[in-house]
Amino acid sequence: MRHLIDITDLSVEEIEGLMDTAADIVAHPENYRDRCRYKKLATLFFEPSTRTRLSFEAAMMELGGQVLGIPEASSSSAAKGESMADTAKIVSGYADIIAMRHPLEGAALAAAGKADVPVINAGDGGHCHPTQTLTDLFAIRRELGRLTHLTVGLCGDLKYGRTVHSLIAAMSRYPGVTFVSVSPEELRLPDYVTAAMEKAGIPHRETADLEGALPELDVLYMTRIQRERFADPAVYERLKDSYVLDTDKMKKAKETMCVLHPLPRVNEIHPAVDADPRAAYFRQAVGGKYMRMALILKLLAEREAPASLPQGEPAPHRCRNPRCITRVEQALPLLQKDGRCIYCETII
Ligand code: NCD
Predict the structure, then answer these.
(1) Most buried of 172, 211, 275, 311 (most Cβ within 10 A)?
(2) What are the angstrom distances between the C-alpha of 229 and each of 58, 107, 124, 316?
(3) Ligand 1 atom having least distance to the Cα of 157
(4) How far is ligand 1, taken at its centre, from the CA of residue 223, in Å?
């Protein structure tokens, strides 16, 4: 059975196939209305969400399936102390596929190890968010007509912004892509992300200057400063308004640039930018539902495929990342691959 834990669980060809299916669903929704009849999607959300959870639920409903789920941690047995892996095991007896969001990094992988149905990672702490990346890639393809030979600016909270980590992993596989990361010093990309780019020879430049970077960008991917991940609220207060995209700054950008944002936005894009035709973030969010429909169809169709979970060697001790699932779920096997924790990718 296949899961989607990390965006690289899907090949570039498979992602292209999902985008083609999503485009076909947009054009011919009537052909898909009964494709998941009698199937159930469980949404296990242990962290807040609007778009991701509702777009998953709408996706399953538009395929003729049904949904059940937990909208927040306090309403599940997690509040009684049940392990996340046990919850996933139990829910896989009630549903055909699970979409899960959790504040700890590696939680979806740990769940997939126990579940008897496909698990989709709908965000694991500050680690990754592969279905947002499917949404982002579909948006870029629709807005610009290609995913190759692009200069992609990533702006805001690049340390905790899980959508950015998955987007880099995905776009690093397309030829001619250059990344410009724009953040305050404290919110730069994690070491494992920059190390992977360096190893693969992906052109990458870091700067704190958004206005200076804007003229060269084909895509500007704005992100929210992730308040819930800061240990010290004073640091969040100091950094929260580091970047605000407004109509003046947009004058410095190419006429063909597109602005994306996984949403929700707080202050980082002024609402006056919404009227600019280059502001693609609301169109981007709508596309997410179609990509999730395509993904659900694919994973349900491939129930008999070989397991896609990463294998590792025993690690000598628990991961040093305090937000790693292995720090909380004591029964998990401690595993490493290429010197990194297999759950959260922290360099061991
Ligand atoms: C993002 C997330 O949850 O990581 N939202 C989303 O899924 N669309 C981005 C964010 O919360 O800032």
Answers:
(1) 172
(2) 28, 16, 12, 27
(3) 12
(4) 8
Residue whose tokens read 């990672």: 121
**pLDDT value, residue 262:** 98
* CA pair distance 91, 86, nearest whole angstrom: 9
Q: Report CA(318)–ligand 1 centroid distance (Å).
A: 28
Task: Give domain status of residue 282, yes or no.
Answer: yes
Low-confidence ranges of the chain (pLDDT < 50): none
Please tell me the residue having the least CA distance from ligand 1 atom 7.
52
Inter-residue contact 65 to 39 (CB < 8 Å): yes
Its pTM stands at 0.96
145 with 282, same domain? yes
Whichever domain contains 37, its CATH number is 3.40.50.1370
Q: Ligand 1 within 6 A of 262 CB? A: yes
Residue 292 Cβ contacting ligand 1 at under 6 Å: no
